[in-house]
Amino acid sequence: xxxxxxxxxxxxxxxxxxxxxxxxxxxxxxxxxxxxxxxxxxxxxxxxxxxxxxxxxxxxxxxxxxxxxxxxxxxxxxxxxxxxxxxxxxxxxxxxxxxxxxxxxxxxxxxxxxxxxxxxxxxxxxxxxxxxxxxxxxxxxxxxxxx
Length: 147
Known about the structure:
Blueprint: H1 3-18, H2 23-32, H3 35-49, H4 58-73, E1 75-76, E2 88-89, E3 95-96, E4 107-111, E5 118-120, E6 123-125, E7 130-134, E8 141-145
Helix pairs in contact: 1-3, 2-3, 3-4
């Protein structure tokens, strides 16, 4: 991954969550942003791990912060997961994603308890664009793709 791609992924995630792409907003969300903070450090780990200069300087620190956020926020997404731009996590509690699932562009990770149901002819239905992500001892999560 090149720096240009890394920057695009970070700013597209930020835009999807906040609707703006400003440096001040980026700094605020990296410091206090919850799920965006997890996205940022996950993408930073992936970028630093593949860069020879950053592998021994920034990667250990970023990996430590990501591991800490994994337990603090209850989000578990392996670094090997290929996630497209505009990734958004709606629910921070006990959310898991399997590494062989590749969420594409503008994907939302939604906790099972927040399952979005659509009303159709007087009864609730599941949307067609949901993909189940985790079926572990944790509650299920779903991925919603919006284009």
